[in-house]
Specification:
The complex is a heterodimer. By secondary structure, chain A is α/β, with parallel strands linked by helices. Chain A contains 15 helices and 15 strands. Chain A folds into three domains: 11-55, no CATH class; 78-89 and 363-463, Aspartate Aminotransferase, domain 1 (Alpha-Beta Complex); 92-358, Aspartate Aminotransferase, domain 2 (3-Layer(aba) Sandwich). Classes of the chains: A alpha/beta, B alpha/beta.
């Protein structure tokens, strides 16, 4: 390293300081020290071949900004994309808290020095439990799919059974994640996924097919509500009952933002609730906003199977003062390594804290009104564009998403919509060939009547 | 160096549910326009009756300023890395994440992952080029994916590649993996989740060096591969690592390198020359992205060209001068995370790497390593503390307070409650099992100045003196923190634990 290299991120790059430290260590340079630790044959004896550095923040900001200027965002275009990542409004207070240095840069400190972090974790747990009508959840996990993977594995361990039933109307991406979680290098530990038909008329789970596949081998049924196609599963209670009839678990995946207006998982008999918290105050970040949760009632047999950290309220040596700690910590992989319940790791705690702020801001009334606005706007959009010749909206009874069937290929339509600065719905053609040339449209509180009318006008021209 | 007393904010903040004031509200959602309402009617008429929420959720009701105040107070009672000398949290000491990178990462906040690739060329360029121009050179691997959203998922991803690889080769009977006890727990837990039996090797008890003879005995026709952290979590670099990968390969297995923490070896030694087939880097560690109270993070997984076809989909590719998402990969393991992972983390890491360049990355590694030697020499002089195995540590060391505990009754639990009174964060102890008794694991990465390290060591020295002169002071610590010593016997008791306010109310208040 040249003697003149001083970088603002590396205080001890100052040559005189480094020299003094080396003197105290009793070494001449870094190479000499590395040579004591790493065999010569493994040392890289050349400078890495990397692009030129931009050590000045001024140049760096300009460079990255220029690259980013090549992007269009959902602020630039009107977007009707959903399918697991959704554009909702983020209240400013959410971002203020999320960007606080303390939460942004905390990591694994103790429960005294990080009291606020533990309490914010606990409050996320409490608030999401309020929406679900459940009592136990933990630090949020990576995304809805990972939560579903953990959930069905819990059900399999609890029941000692190795088959799960999954309807065709769950997210294809989440199904792929489930397949990852259910496979096994040891065949006898593999969990078999058996698919259940969806009702072609309603887009809901085909109850008769579910009944016919429910055998004593089934650990759980995993369904989504609203399902991937946006449709609300009106028979959710019956699905849970069918599972319970053979002592299987009912596992449901939900979009948390629907729960101001939709019945809670517990109210229709779900034993394990999983889902996505990104809509609760977290921006999309090209998919980086995902935040999954996993919850159950407060029964030991469930709690013992959770993989993630579970923050419990506790007491301190001072009467009336709150403290926090981790419940049943021995089940985690930090303690039990390969004998743990799946694994625990760095997941999405900051998004959980943000979601806690969101739920606190909205309260029961805000969550209800928001759900009402979304459902009214999405239904209005469906009704409006259905009037266009060549457009069909096959299902009703949805929350914020719905398939739209066209008389032309979706790829072609979506390409033309870009000229109107519109991102059309997610193409369903490959994943749901039975739906023909369909796209999944998403409408939220972010869409004004004017935006919806722009879509209507654009589709009329594109399909003409 | 004189240590300073620190007083943490102590707000005695209630749980948010206790602050509820019925009728208050913090946010008003937009209403559907009149035209829309008139056309579609009441929302309740659009929801199947069986699925209409009948009982409102028990969320608290607060006005906006009250919500803000509450969470600001909670943030103040959190000792984030930016506020203190955080080098005690080794195995993953967080480095400084430049504030400008928050702004740059924020530029993708409103991008939807299913936008046409042509509308996110800038983002895809950053991700592709970071893998192609930086990580490939730093590791010697051939192809990268950023889909895993955390280090453990990177490790899990590699277990899935291993699983598919052996299946494709017609050797599904390979169901054993090998790791070492000082590899991170994810190197055992994630292959186990993927269905592998895990064989854990212990080091030579005198030297702490991973035992090559034990490896030779462990391999066989059932060996699927190995998952190895190096430098190990105690800071010792396995000098025989290339011999290890040779032994695994000779047995027909694959080798996955846990480089979550490559902080002190970037540009110094690489996965390729060590003989690995795949690796993962924790970007929210080695490549600078804030830890966010525990995520979102990102693992960059790198593989050799032989394994490239197994990477999770979509893979970001460059074709005819444009960047695209490739979903058509028949041999892919599928998905470990929806979408493309946490790309905001990748943006930060790209910016950080660009700010440093080849010289700067190597300098960051060298300074981390020198800082580590400097800290070892200082801590060695403190009473009651010892470094368990001989020899130099690369990036961090695992120390023991066994002597202090024997002399005074004070161990790591008490020390951890006392150091925070001087404004430095509690230390990371060790994952389990605690082969090294009363452990702690400092890692002074390149972010910390000589003065920072001197201060941190001065605090440790002061606390050691207190342990010998006034152990009661440590037993009753903390004294200046946001709350007091936890006195609670319910963490393993179903009647007492409470993971939500609803559970707490039911168990403890009613």
């Amino acid at each position: 390293m040249g003697d003149d290299f001083v970088h603002p991120y590396i205080p001890n790059s100052v040559p005189s300081i480094k020299k003094k430290m080396l003197e105290e260590i009793g070494a001449n340079n870094a190479d000499e020290l590395y040579a004591e630790m790493i065999p010569d044959r493994l040392l890289l004896k050349r400078e890495m071949d990397l692009p030129p550095a931009l050590p000045s923040e001024v140049d760096l900001k300009r460079h990255v900004s220029e690259l980013m200027a090549k992007n269009k965002t959902t602020e630039d275009y009107i977007s009707f994309l959903g399918a697991g990542c959704w554009q909702h409004y983020v209240p400013k207070v959410c971002e203020t808290i999320q960007n606080r240095s303390e939460f942004l840069t905390a990591y694994a400190g103790g429960s005294h020095s990080d009291l606020g972090r533990f309490q914010a974790n606990f409050e996320f747990q409490s608030l999401i439990c309020d929406l679900l009508d459940m009592e136990v959840t933990g630090i949020p996990t990576y995304d809805w799919g990972a939560a579903a993977g953990n959930g069905v594995r819990m059900a399999s361990r609890m029941t000692g059974r190795s088959e799960i039933l999954v309807p065709m109307n769950v997210s294809p991406a989440r199904l792929q994640i489930l397949e990852s979680f259910c496979g096994s290098a040891t065949p006898e530990r593999e969990i078999k996924i058996k698919m259940v038909e969806m009702d072609k008329e309603t887009g809901r789970v085909n109850i008769e097919d579910l009944k016919s596949k429910m055998t004593a081998e089934v650990a759980c049924v995993y369904f989504e509500n609203p399902n991937y196609l946006g449709v609300i599963e009106a028979d959710a209670k019956e699905i849970s009952d069918i599972a319970h009839d053979i002592d299987a678990e009912s596992v449901v995946g939900v979009d948390a933002i629907s729960l101001g207006v939709l019945a809670s998982p517990a109210s229709y008999g779900a034993d394990i609730a999983v889902g996505e918290a990104q809509p609760l105050g977290v921006k999309m970040f090209a998919g980086g906003g995902s935040c999954g949760f996993l919850a159950t009632q407060d029964e030991e047999r469930y709690v013992a199977e959770f993989p993630m950290r579970l923050v419990s309220l506790a007491t301190t040596s001072v009467e009336g003062e709150y403290g926090f700690g981790q419940a049943l910590y021995d089940r985690t992989s930090y303690m039990a390594r390969e004998n743990a319940k799946d694994w625990v790791g760095t997941t999405t705690a900051l998004w959980g804290i943000t979601a806690a702020v969101y739920m606190s801001l909205l309260g029961p009334q805000g969550m209800k009104e928001l759900g009402e606005t979304i459902i009214q706007k999405s239904n209005y959009t469906a009704g409006l564009i259905e009037e266009i010749s060549g457009v069909e909206v096959p299902y009703r009874g949805f929350f914020k998403e719905f398939p739209v069937k066209f008389n032309k290929p979706v790829e072609e339509i979506n390409k033309k919509l870009l000229d109107y600065e519109i991102f059309g719905g997610k193409d369903l053609t490959k994943d749901y060939p039975g739906l023909g040339d369909s796209a999944l449209y998403c409408v939220t509180e972010m869409h004004t009547l004017g935006m919806i009318e722009k879509l209507d006008a654009a589709l009329k021209e594109v399909l003409a | 160096m004189k240590v300073k007393e620190y007083q943490a904010p102590r707000w005695n903040e209630p749980i948010i549910h206790e602050l509820t004031s019925p009728g208050e509200r913090g946010f008003i959602p937009p209403q559907a326009e009149e035209k829309i309402k008139k056309k579609v009617g009441d929302a309740s008429s659009l929801i199947p009756g069986s699925m209409l929420r009948k009982k409102a959720p028990a969320l608290p009701e607060l006005s906006q300023a009250q919500v803000l105040r509450h969470y600001l107070r909670l943030s103040q009672m959190t000792l984030g890395m930016e506020l203190e000398i955080d080098l005690g949290i080794g195995t993953c000491t967080m480095k400084y994440s430049p504030k400008i990178n928050e702004e740059l990462a924020g530029m993708i906040a409103d991008i939807h992952p299913h936008q046409p690739a042509e509308t996110m060329q800038g983002l895809l360029e950053i991700a592709y080029e970071f893998g192609d121009k930086y990580l490939r050179e730093i590791s010697g691997m051939d192809a990268f994916s950023f889909q895993p959203p955390g280090g453990s998922v990177g490790c899990y991803n590699n277990a899935l590649i291993m699983r598919n690889y052996h299946r494709d080769k017609g050797e599904p009977e390979r169901d054993e993996v090998i790791t070492t006890i000082f590899s991170h727990p994810c190197d055992a837990a994630t292959p186990a989740t993927a269905g592998y039996k895990v064989i854990t090797l212990y080091p030579d008890p005198e030297t702490g060096i991973p035992d090559t003879e034990a490896l030779k005995e462990a391999v066989g026709p059932k060996t699927a591969g190995c998952f190895i952290t190096n430098p190990e979590d105690i800071g010792i670099f396995n000098k025989n690592i290339d011999e290890w990968t040779g032994i695994i390969h000779d047995a027909g297995g694959l080798c996955s390198y846990d480089q979550a923490n490559a902080n002190a070896i970037m540009g110094v030694t690489r996965a390729k020359e060590a003989g690995f087939d795949m690796l993962f880097f924790n970007l929210h560690k080695t490549f600078s992205s804030p830890h966010g109270s525990s995520g979102p993070g990102s693992a960059a997984v790198g593989v050799t060209s032989e394994l490239e076809e197994y990477l999770p989909t979509p893979v970001i590719i460059k074709k005819d001068g444009a960047y695209a998402l490739d979903y058509d990969r028949p041999k892919s393991i599928g998905k470990v995370r929806d979408f493309m992972g946490n790309l905001q983390v990748v943006v930060r890491s790209y910016a950080w790497s660009m700010a440093l360049g080849a010289k700067g990355l190597r300098e960051a590694a060298e300074v981390s390593m020198i800082n580590s030697q400097y800290l070892v020499d200082k801590v060695k002089k403190i009473k009651g503390i010892s470094l368990t195995y001989p020899g130099r540590r690369v990036d961090q060391g695992r120390w023991s307070l066994e002597q202090m505990k024997a002399d005074t009754g004070i161990g790591i639990s008490e020390v951890n409650r006392r150091v925070i009174d001087y404004g430095i964060q509690s230390f990371f102890t060790s994952h389990h099992p605690w082969l090294i008794p009363e452990p702690f694991t400092p890692e002074p990465c390149e972010t910390y100045s000589k003065a920072d390290i001197d201060y941190w060591c001065a605090v440790l020295e002061k606390v050691s003196e207190e342990a010998y002169s006034n152990p009661e002071l440590l037993k009753t610590a903390p004294h200046n923190s946001s709350n007091h010593r936890i006195v609670f016997d319910g963490f393993n008791d179903p009647k007492k634990w409470a993971m939500s306010w609803a559970a707490y109310r039911r168990k403890h208040l009613e």
